[in-house]
Amino acid sequence: MNLKPFFSALRFLTIVPIPESWCGDEDDFYRSPDWYPLVGLCLGLFLVLLDMVLRWLLPLSVVNVLLLVAMIAVSGALHLDGLADSADAFFSSRGREQMLEIMKDSRSGPMGVTAIVLVLLLKLMLLIALPSAWRWQVLLLMPLCGRCSLALVSSWLPYSRHSGTAKFSEKQKNSFRLPISLAVMLFVAFILMGWSAGVVVFGFVVVSIWLLGRYSRRKIGGFTGDTLGATCELVEMVPLLAVVVLVHMGWM
Fold first, then answer.
1. Cα–Cα distance between 119 and 177 in angstroms, integer?
2. Residue 211: which of 138, 157, 137, 143 has the closest Cα?
3. Distance CA 209, CA 203 (A)
4. What own/partner pairs with CB < 8 Å and gap ≥ 24 does 240-244 have?
5. Which of 69, 175, 210, 211 has the fewest CB atoms in 10 Å of its CB?
6. In sequence order, what are the beta bridge partners of 223?
7. Sequence spans of domains, the chain
């Protein structure tokens, strides 16, 4: 089995110091989105183990904050940057080309900063509200669903620029990336939560990806690296939100 695309995906999506020689050539990099679900699963396992260690050492309130920091740090804040740029562009009330130009600007405007603060605050509050009985399952699902969303959106939507950071995801695109990503999410959700709860959480995630994808397509005609990052950041929160809602309603 050729694992070079996996190492290429791990090197691109995280700060893990993967040797460049492990990542193969350009074709392996183009195939790396096929391995995003596995990267997400690895990150989920990392979060679960980190949570176990931190809860042994620290109060739960502090652990929740440190988990949030870990989720940001492990990706080098790549997806948060995309969230900020997307918010600045989409809420600017400009035309498509102007929005694409706004996304190129490395500076964050008021909408970008507001989006980051609100998303991080909501994640923290949801972690605090998350019942301990479902804690490790949700921590495992969050990065998995976020990284699967990258593979799904890049398979479904066209790239909105002629060139850019995420242009490579259109190359070596195959018909198996989308169904495999969906199957992995559904299978893991079923194993972790059982059939009924797993399907409901999976449904929440899929609908969220579809809505975010449609919104991006309506705004700029497809996706960019920034909108992929924003999608990952938001979808990562959906399993957490779904479980908190279901438990609060007495359905789990």
1. 28
2. 157
3. 10
4. 240/123, 240/126, 240/127, 240/130, 240/138, 240/142, 241/122, 241/126, 241/204, 242/200, 242/201, 242/204, 242/205, 243/130, 243/131, 243/134, 243/137, 243/138, 243/197, 243/201, 244/126, 244/129, 244/130
5. 175
6. 159
7. 34-248
Amino acid letter for position 243: V
CA atoms within 13 A of residue 17's CA, in its CB half-sphere: 0
Handedness of CA 21, 27, 33, 37 (dihedral sign): negative
Separation CA 167–CA 170 (nearest Å): 6
Residues 10-46 pLDDT 10s: 999 999 999 988 888 888 888 889 999 999 999 999 9
User: Cα–Cα distances in Å, from 117 out to 60, 113, 193, 215?
Assistant: 21, 6, 30, 21
Q: Interhelix angle for 177-193 vs 36-57, to 10°? A: 30
Burial grade of 117 (CB within 10 A; 0-12, 13-18, 19 or more): exposed
pLDDT tens profile 177-217: 899 999 999 999 999 999 999 999 999 999 999 999 999 99
- Residue-wise pLDDT for 132-162, tens only, equals 999 999 999 999 999 999 999 988 888 886 6
